[in-house]
Amino acid sequence: MAYITSISPERIAWCCHQLDITLDELATQVGLPAERFTVQGLHNPGLTFTQLSEVAKFLGRGVLFFTESSAPVETDRASAAQFRTFENNPPELSLRIKQLVDRVQRQRQIHLHLIEDLEDEAWPMFEPPALKRNDITEAARQTRRWLGLQDRNNYESYRRAVEQRGILVFGPHGYAGPWQLSEDHPVAGFALYDRQCPVIVVKKTQSESRRCFTLMHELAHVLLHRSSWIDVQADLMRHDVTHEREANQFAGLVLVPPEFLQEIDLRDLPEAVDQYDAYFKAHTLRWGVSTEVILRRLLDERRLSLQRYEAYRNRPVDVDRVEKQGGSRIYRHREPRHLFGERYVRAVLDSLSAQTITLTKASAYLDHISVMDVHKLEEFCAHPHP
Known about the structure:
The chain is mainly α. Helices cover about 50% and strands about 5% of the residues. It folds into three domains: about 60 residues, 434 Repressor (Amino-terminal Domain) (Orthogonal Bundle); about 210 residues, no CATH class; about 50 residues, no CATH class. A four-stranded mixed β-sheet has the order 1-3-2-4, with helices on both faces. Helix 5 crosses helix 6 and helix 7 crosses helix 10.
């Protein structure tokens, strides 16, 4: 059996550091003894090509990355390949976002490995609908049927519908740590397209209505464009870039289809734009959208003037305030579900119940919550309402 002995221990250690895992955890994941990842073990006897391929796959790198020189890794270059998957070629991105994308990719691989050992019928894979992609209105209508959406929705119902179609939906939170995406960070969300299991990431530190729009905007990139895309907040209202214009139109139509607008009577619409939020409140609560989304849809349907729409957008307002995250974390056991979504968490807990993974591994897969919190999470998922 041929062994590769020119493996860089420094690069394996660097990848583990980026993913916040130990060499022992890596060894467990790929089914090799921990001593094989010491400097001596990597050089004598080394790893077979098959073993190194498994390591590279888990760490989200190519095999050649680990057989290059042991010189320090240039972070920007190491992450560049990952970001070439974003079709919109994002500008300079922070190291935190690059690391976040790496983590998301790793969690997707964990999910796919887990469901391989579970009942296939209970875990349908992603099969995109055959949309009329040159007709956004019809594509949005098809998507609502595909998702099985009802007339009354909120972010969790939209998220659940998307997850049930084989798409993971993650929600980075505001707590300090590897999964933090702070309220003032410009990135609102991104989509990582994959033929087996796409992932949509929606920043949790946004108002609920903005999260709904971001979710459907990123879903457009997955279903219409079949591509990975990263969006800052300003992109969610752009109409000068084809893909962004289509994604915004699609999101608006999925959230507020034409038949919903028929319920809106504009004869009593206040003259003062600062009264619009109160006027549309019943509809925003029912549909899980913002006033601006409704106004944009009315504008698109030529029921509202551009002058009124712009007046509302340009009105002086306080910045959206979302619930501050911090302080006591007595509900730490619930955080994995908020962060990774119901589909991912259920795969971990079902695997634990089927004894295909250990309790320690389940803890690692669930953002390293304590063993006690894993049991609390099991109870919470069985009876989700406190």
